[in-house]
Amino acid sequence: MRQRIRKGILIFSLLMFPITFMLLSPFVIVVSASNGVLNGSAMIFGTLLLFSMVGSRLFCGWLCPGGALQEHITVVNSRHWNSKGKNMSKYMIWTIWFFFIVYLWLQNRPLKGNFLYFIEFNLQFFIIYSIVMTLIYLFTIMTGRRGMCHSLCWMAPFMVIGEKLGDFLHIPRFRLKAKAEDCISCGKCTKNCPMGLDVAAMVKEEVTDSYECINCLECVDGCPKKAISFGIYQKQR
Asked: Which residues form the signal peptide (predicted)?
């Protein structure tokens, strides 16, 4: 039942994406920063960073429209796309992009807040939207399970930083917990994971923290022995 609710929310988020697209855009934040404006994208990304200190990457698993599109493409390509090298590329892209924005903010002080800055629904918008959706679709087709999330997502680093900051400050946050003795090695958790994580191995080691985990709870709901649970916990030492 919980996964039906999650997937229903994701579908609704995807249907609303034409409206929220500009508020999640990495390009619009650059345009805004070059004009001395702190826009909706900047405010939302900052909010996600703060939220992830407690809520981890629940946004990715439950609300992200790009993630919703990718999960539906899994029926075409369900290959796992998860490795250290593939995951690092998004951080390199994000670092260049983020410091360029900071540079623009510093060059165009004082900043003015305008949540709806640069949001216009015209032909140009729909062309850009179509191109972006096509790129997400094609990249996921070529890579596999949430390939964009692993390799190109500009939003994930904000939440990973938030998770690390929360751990550094010893703030309890949303996590998974596992009981290795209850695991029967059926492999359903790994098979169901939309991020292609080796959840079964993580359960065996009772180390379920992963910055690539999107907290979708597929592994929790699919485990026949309830070996995986979730809650608000501090980082295990």
From this structure: none
